Amino acid sequence: MNRQLFLTLTLLLSVFSVFAQQTFKYQAKLPKVETDGFYRVDLSPELIAGAQANLGDIRILNQKKQFSPYIFGNQLVFKDQRSFIAFPKLKALAEVDTVTTFIVENAAHLTINQLSLQLRNASVKRNVNLSGSDDLKKWYAIKENISLEEAVSDEPGNGTYQQQLNFPSSSYRYLRIQINNENKEPVAILQAGIYRQQSIPPVYVQLKKPLIQQRDSAQVSYITVRFNAPYQLNKLHLEIAGQKYYKRNVRVYAVQQKEKSLVADTLISTSAIPNLYFSAKTNHLELEIVNGDNPPLVLHKVNGYQLSQSLISYLEKDQDYTILFGDGKANAPDYDLKFFGDSLQQELKPLNYQSVSANPLYQKPQEKSKVAKGDGIPGWVIWAAIVIVAALLGFLTFKMTQEVSKRDKL
């Protein structure tokens, strides 16, 4: 009976494992490590292009067919209480029953990946949304639905506590913190800032060369930039010719299925390197350079870059690990490891995965009409199989319990 129970458990785990893996389009296999420990895995532009914009669908599958916890490299905490820098507060608006809004200015355009909030003590459940802007007009999402931590009741202090917000590296001039009060009393935010160690120099990864086309009208030059995949774009470097001295306004639009959204509105001039900074996940950009009465600029080349991203996870010796990604409906995992970012070593062993490939277990969601015709395996069939296996497991467990009980009576 124990053998039957073991086989049933193995079958049940296999069914659940296959079902969990089939929603991810892509995979990347990690090499086996020689020693147990924490490793840093740098994410290539190709992997990030195939994942969600917030990278919430990335999973690390271990040899036991379970998901191994990880944190992003920018979630490592290096804190020095003596070097806290409070950002200037531009606006503090508390609207009862709606949203608490708090806006600060990152005047130096520091590239940061953490923001520390100082709040008055509260033991409540709230969600925080973080967005950024360069002009206080157009706001762009950075991270959403961050759970607000509760103040520790027995912690000594002055009636305040801090929460650390971790997010993808960003250099927006303005940061907006919004706390959803859910028709309840607002939460008091006192200040927001960073620790000096969090001001990290940006590390960019160059993307594959895009195709560019330029069309000049009477006063505006229109440049189309197309990449071979929907990369995460954080910087464009322009190689310009045609004028020795210039100062032009540039607007950058991300194009998604004929819909355009403004992601940058800035200036380029001969007094500075012609770099454009923004955040957009797309393979299609349109640039508008306002020439006025001047001759148009000529773009010889456009180079695209993304900020470096990495995963940190504890890996065991001689075990197989696979990175899964490409599930547009997956929610970001919530691992306990995020609370121990300050305990990990700063010098982590680097680990490079093999090339990105299609996940052989992936099953494209079937349309209802196709399922009715018998194309593919309907979802109810998979769930029915899981229920049957679970029922079988329960029956075998019951039988085993009865046998053990009879033996005890004898």
Question: Can you walk through the features of this model?
Answer:
With 410 residues, the protein is an alpha+beta fold. The chain is 15% helix and 43% strand. Strands 15, 16, 17, 18, 19, 20 and 21 form a seven-stranded antiparallel sheet that branches. Strands 4-3-23-1-25 form a five-stranded antiparallel sheet, with no helix packed on it. The protein has a five-stranded antiparallel sheet with strand order 7-8-13-10-11, with no helix packed on it. α1 (2-21) runs antiparallel to α4. The longest helix is centred in the C-terminal third of the chain and has 31 residues, at 379-409.
Structure at a glance:
With 410 residues, this protein is an alpha+beta fold. It has helices spanning 2-21, 45-50, 368-372, 379-409; strands at residues 26-30, 37-42, 59-61, 67-68, 70-72, 84-86, 89-94, 99-105, 112-120, 127-133, 140-147, 160-170, 174-180, 189-195, 204-206, 211-216, 220-241, 247-256, 259-269, 275-290, 298-307, 310-315, 321-325, 349-351, 357-358. Strands 15, 16, 17, 18, 19, 20 and 21 form a seven-stranded antiparallel sheet that branches.
